[in-house]
Design a protein that fits this description.
Blueprint: E1 6-12, H1 33-46, E2 52-60, H2 68-81, E3 83-94, H3 101-109, E4 114-120, H4 124-130, H5 136-148, E5 154-160, H6 167-178, E6 184-189, H7 197-203, H8 212-228, E7 232-235, E8 238-240, H9 248-254, E9 259-262, E10 267-269, E11 273-277, H10 281-290, E12 296-301, H11 304-317, E13 322-323, H12 324-331, H13 335-348, E14 352-354, E15 358-361, H14 363-366, H15 369-377
Parallel strand pairs: 1-2, 1-9, 2-3, 3-4, 4-5, 5-6
Antiparallel strand pairs: 6-8, 7-8, 10-11, 11-12, 13-15, 14-15
Helix pairs in contact: 1-2, 1-10, 6-8, 11-15
Amino acid sequence: MKTEPSGIYIHIPFCIRKCPYCDFYSVTDFSLKPPFLKALMREMRMVCNVPRFNTLYIGGGTPSVLDVEDIRQIMEAARRSYNILPESEITIEANPGTVNPEKLRDYHCAGVNRINIGVQSLQDANLTFLGRIHSARDAVLAIRWARKAGFDNMGLDLIYGIPGQTKKSWLLDLQNAIEFEPEHLSCYMLTFEPDTPMDRDRRRGIFRPLNEHSAASLFKTTTEFLNDSGYAQYEISNFARSESERSRHNQKYWSDVPYTGLGPSAHSFTGDERYWNHRSVKRYIQDIIDEQRLPIAERELLTKEQRMTEAIYLGLRKTEGISVDDFDEKFGVSFNRMFRETIKSLEEEGFMKVSQKRCSLTLSGMVFLDSIASALVSGFDDPLSLLPDC
């Protein structure tokens, strides 16, 4: 069986200002940028991976705070250290408040062939609530500049479920976004991650989140509107105009494909093991430059049950769902035997679609993804369910 090439993720840990809802690791101290870049180049040389790579994703943080020389240096170092295949997908995340026409053109000339712009909203009131550093006008300009720079593979990120948001106002954002004809759209429900400033404001009663019914209604509105507009949903939050315009890198995360993470807080996955770097730029630099060792915080050797749990949670995120044959072959069990009763109940309630080959969630089922996945993996408590059919 042909092995899918791996992916590389590079975490750029710098932001001009931290968004109040975000729990991704970043700092605002740009004096750390030179030693960080030095450490990143060395980490690439230290992490010697044999596999081939066909995606490289530069995320963060805010990667677009880097100038073109920084990006060019990263790209050259990655190509020296790794077997990055021709025609690879090379993505950079961009904040509209940190780009200009020259920077975007130079990124493209340096070899970046896909851009993901963190628009979040095209309405200034929403952007203010989200604590973004850019305006709606900035977002529009960034999209236009990216096209003129030569990016013909562009994704836009949007956030919905903002307190007080109505179906009408969310549809306005969606309509405005698709007028730019992006190849890809990611639409994320606003979540209140523990210990973020926004979560603290929520707990203090400074604002009232949308109730579950309203949030579920907006999710269904999103999928129906985008599907009708030519953007097919392929993952719970992701839509593309065609299969070739899906995020090749992100699909690795949902499909159990190995990937290598570089930079502070970055995670790596080998298939059987997961490990991650320290969530500190200073510790990252110290380990690599001063101690000459990899900045790994922890390693976890995954058990069979953990791998099956991840296969269920991640598989159900995809509209194509779980391949029953692949699951059975990979884990040496019978998917249908393990989950027969739970699946039957979910199918009767209209939450799941099942055939001999695939098991996937309906649109209504996707609203309850976590609960449904949890109900399935609870079957692991029965050791007999892990035995193959005789």
